[in-house]
Amino acid sequence: MMSDIKEKGLIAAVAAGGTTAVAAGAASVPFVAGFTTSGVAAGSIAAGIQSGIGCVAAGSGFAGMQTIAATTLLGTCAPLVVAGAAATGTAVAGYALVNHLKEKNK
Asked: Which of 7, 41, 53, 72 has CA 20 to 30 A from 15's CA?
């Protein structure tokens, strides 16, 4: 009985950690592309796009991405930190689950 509870808890931890890592990783896209809280980062993908666009129109997708990055935590490395922590937690829980299942099947 306790083994089943432990197994279900470990499975839940792996699922929750994996989901958090994926969501935080996706949320880090603006920052990785070069949209930051202080504007477009020089030499970034966003800077290359902006140089091709020229004058960025208000309300455009590019302007929207910059607004999101400038006004939320998505323009910082915070989502990358969360993704890294979640991935680490998922790996630890996964390792514990594998070991638990090995012991259970002996």
From this structure: 72
pTM over 0.90: no
Cβ proximity of 47 and 34 under 8 Å? yes
Contact 54, 80 (CB under 8 A): no
C-alpha 50/C-alpha 33 separation (Å) is 12
Q: CA 85 to CA 92: how far, in whole Å?
A: 11
* pLDDT band for position 40 (cuts 50, 70, 90): very high
Neighbouring residues of 48: CB distance < 8 A, sequence distance ≥ 6: none
Task: Label residues 34-60 b or e (16+ Cβ within 10 Å = b).
Answer: bbbeeebbeebebbebbeeeeeeeeee
